[in-house]
């Protein structure tokens, strides 16, 4: 894997990478994150008693919408036609958090890592927004790429340390 940054030209100016010469391949990216909260907040979400509505349902829709609009928020991202954008939530009562996992797929000339990371980020932010009236101390974190498949660099998977 090259150590050169691809979003700069020879003069150090920011550029959008030229992907015109790349081959289309199937590409997948998986990202994860979490949002920590008070146990009462998690219980209220699970019981469906947040006044703004179905927290995880709204977060799911927000995440999918965000994946399709990543290029609008991240300046050097390409506008990518997505084949699939999936978001999963897992509640963890012991640690009082919600685990967030996204999987994004496309067939194209560039990867979907940013779209997967955007989904997790926006899902966490949406959960925060919907619950901030009862818990302003929530912490969104541990957002990371877990794996990517496809393209010239092939497969990359996070190694647990």
Major beta sheet, specifics?
5 strands, antiparallel
Give helix and strand order, one letter per element, not per position: EHHHEEHEE
Q: What is the CATH architecture term? A: 2-Layer Sandwich
Cα separation of the termini: 21 Å
- What share of residues is helical? 25-40%
User: What is CATH's topology name?
Assistant: Alpha-Beta Plaits
Number of helices: 4
Oligomer: single chain
Instruction: Give a count of the beta strands, DSSP E runs of length 2 or more.
Output: 5
**How many structural domains are formed by the residues?**
1
Backbone CA Rg: 18 Å
Structural class, please? Answer: alpha+beta
pLDDT < 50 stretches: none
Gross geometry: elongated
> Widest sheet: strand order?
2-3-1-4-5
Q: What's the CATH class, please? A: Alpha Beta
What fraction strand?
Answer: 25-35%
CATH superfamily grouping: Molybdopterin cofactor biosynthesis C (MoaC) domain
User: Quick check: average pLDDT?
Assistant: 93
Pathway: Cofactor biosynthesis; molybdopterin biosynthesis
Protein name: Cyclic pyranopterin monophosphate synthase
GO molecular function: cyclic pyranopterin monophosphate synthase activity
EC number: 4.6.1.17
